[in-house]
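Input record, target 12 of the design panel.
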């Protein structure tokens, strides 16, 4: 199990992907896009190092964490992370751990997929928007996750007060950037097969964040809205990006300021969650419909050009 944890660690997978990309670049040096991919992977390694340093420093500057409050919001929602995680600790734990640790390789794969099909917008710009704004939201509602809060009791958490606690650790729980990144894949999926794979990966990622004890259920909701924001930036849909950034920020500041009111009104929490998820689904449907319409127009143009060439 220790060997598996090393093989599936984020650092090991990132280095492995970088080595593979260098080999892939050297196989076809005339392809000018491949060096850019290698450069992006190198920058990602440096970003990961500085991100961990920044989050560690942020954790020490913000020792009071909102984990018990997030735990109580899960109770108000009626779905606790531990109740989902417990059945996933057997056979499913390893594949879900792989899904959780495969985020960086999937980011590279989706960059290649989007480039291959000439997807509109820039998935790299979406990554940049997400990674730049995410740590700022982390600082508003600092939280570490159930496994760091309850330790060995995280699958059977005790009764705790809905208050901040002094906890050392990186405050990277609320919102979930894993869920946000997986949603970027969904919005940048150019084909039917890619859409199926992206939805499957999104579901696996959400389950993985809970089965590993890294997140509370409530973390996923603003995480999905934040993912639509980041994808919209890459798709150059700035009005939609502003709207979903407002939703993600509204969740963040509501939990920060009015958490007691939210905990005391479970129906309000459930209604807000339902509305947020509905808006996320509508954004996905609209983007997929737009992609289908663009593909249809392109196919019609190609057929018209072919017919005109035959007449000549």
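The sequence produced for target 12 reads:
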């Amino acid at each position: 199990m220790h060997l598996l944890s090393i093989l599936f660690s984020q650092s090991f997978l990132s280095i492995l992907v970088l080595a593979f990309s260098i080999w892939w670049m050297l196989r076809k040096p005339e392809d000018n896009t491949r060096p850019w991919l290698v450069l992006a992977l190198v920058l990602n390694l440096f970003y990961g190092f500085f991100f961990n340093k920044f989050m560690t420093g942020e954790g020490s500057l913000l020792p009071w964490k909102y984990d018990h409050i997030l735990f109580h919001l899960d109770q108000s929602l009626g779905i606790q992370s531990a109740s989902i995680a417990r059945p996933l600790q057997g056979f499913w734990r390893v594949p879900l751990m792989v899904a959780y640790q495969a985020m960086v390789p999937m980011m590279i794969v989706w960059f290649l997929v989007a480039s291959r099909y000439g997807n509109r917008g820039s998935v790299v710009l979406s990554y940049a928007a997400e990674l730049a704004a995410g740590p700022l939201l982390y600082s508003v509602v600092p939280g570490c996750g159930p496994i760091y809060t309850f330790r060995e009791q995280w699958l059977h958490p005790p009764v705790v007060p809905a208050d901040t606690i002094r906890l050392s650790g990186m405050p990277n729980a609320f919102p979930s950037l894993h869920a946000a990144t997986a949603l970027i894949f969904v919005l940048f999926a150019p084909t039917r097969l890619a859409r199926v794979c992206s939805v499957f990966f999104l579901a696996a990622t959400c389950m993985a964040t809970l089965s590993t004890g890294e997140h509370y259920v409530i973390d996923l909701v603003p995480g999905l809205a934040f993912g639509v924001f980041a994808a919209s930036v890459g798709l150059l849909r700035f009005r939609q990006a502003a709207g979903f950034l407002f939703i993600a920020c509204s969740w963040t500041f509501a939990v920060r300021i009015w958490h007691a009111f939210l905990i005391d009104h479970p129906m309000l929490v459930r209604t807000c969650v339902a509305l947020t998820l509905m808006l996320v689904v509508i954004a996905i449907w609209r983007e997929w419909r737009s992609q289908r319409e663009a593909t249809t127009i392109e196919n019609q143009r190609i057929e018209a050009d072919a017919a005109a060439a035959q007449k000549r």
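The beta strands are 64-65, 165-166.
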